[in-house]
Amino acid sequence: MTDNSTSTYREAGVDTAAGDLAVELMKSAVARTHGPEVLGGVGGFAGLFDASALRGYRRPLLATSTDGVGTKVAIAQALDKHDTIGQDLVGMVVDDIVVVGARPLFMTDYIACGKVVPERIADIVRGIAAACSETRTALVGGETAEHPGLLGPDDYDVAGAATGVVEADAVLGPEKVESGDVVLALGSSGLHSNGYSLVRHILAKRDIAFTDRLDEFGGIVGETLLEPTRLYTSPLLRVLATPAGASVHALSHVTGGGIAANLARVLPRGSWVDVDRSTWSPAPVFRVLNDLAGTSLQSAEGTWNLGIGFFAVVKADAAASVISTLAIDGIPAWQVGTVSTTEHDLAGYEQGAKGVDGGAVRLVGDFAD
């Protein structure tokens, strides 16, 4: 007997069998992110996470974050290379949680596509799972939705959400920041996952395809632009677990909005910082893109991270210890400024951002060569 309802759905462009195959291909990678706290395995309507461990906290606060990767997925699609975009997603979501000092517990993902290509979906989820393993985050569930007619056959978008936990008296933020604290910059791996609409605009105006080879980019343009987002969660949690960790007062993830705005969000109202550009040299990818656009690096400070993926605001006497601990994990860190609350003319400063009435930040000087 013919199942007309199934054949009609397939004719409409939705292949449930392809979705099932994608799950089979990704299942083992997802399972590797599961510890004893995860119940039920892969494929349930809801992921289950045993929260009984939270009974050991005096006052546990749950931290949550959600995000996507943005138009960086267009480059992955152009190169038909999908095994790195998952790390970008985890970085954008989980690294927001550690900003408040929280340890990530679990994450879910959502992939919307025009057509389920099992191998492609599996590549994306394997990347998510690998990054979840690196950040000790359980990938407890997800959804792949096929949207024919809304998205093209090779189009997709990804999003995710995560939950973490932090002891109430260990929450990091503006309330802990003091005058005289130093601001440390943590190096980025490249563009991470922000400002790709500007990247695509610049390349389109110069008729440069992602598949083109340019010496300035060190090879294929798209491969350079797909450099995965650096993951900061585990290294920062290791810092917080050291004696110097008590001297870390605030953290900031440099994402949308750029350098000054994201730092200003974690500083107290009435404080200010001059970020010294001369303390670092933006990576070649930023310089090449600005040369192609005919603009200055300073003009991109509100869009790209320009080499700073995170900030840490710490007591001055703990800065050297934090820097050396991060270096063990291969993350370069350096001092870029000092927090001050003295009376100061704040004209030209970025003051707060995204609804947060925070501190004031500006970038000063010239970048190092």
Description:
This protein has 369 residues and is α+β, with helices and mostly antiparallel strands. The protein folds into 2 domains: 156 residues, 2-Layer Sandwich (60s Ribosomal Protein L30, Chain: A), CATH 3.30.1330; 191 residues, Phosphoribosyl-aminoimidazole Synthetase, Chain A, domain 2 (Alpha-Beta Complex). Helix content is 30%, strand content 25%. It is built from 11 helices and 15 strands. The strands form 5 sheets. Strands 3-6-4-5 form a 4-stranded mixed beta sheet, with helices on one face. Strands 10-12-7-13 form a 4-stranded antiparallel beta sheet, sandwiched between helices. α2 packs parallel to α5 and α4 runs parallel beside α5. It is globular, with a radius of gyration of 22 Å. The termini are far apart. It is an enzyme of class 6 (ligase). Its EC number is 6.3.3.1. It catalyses: 2-formamido-N(1)-(5-O-phospho-beta-D-ribosyl)acetamidine + ATP = 5-amino-1-(5-phospho-beta-D-ribosyl)imidazole + ADP + phosphate + H(+).
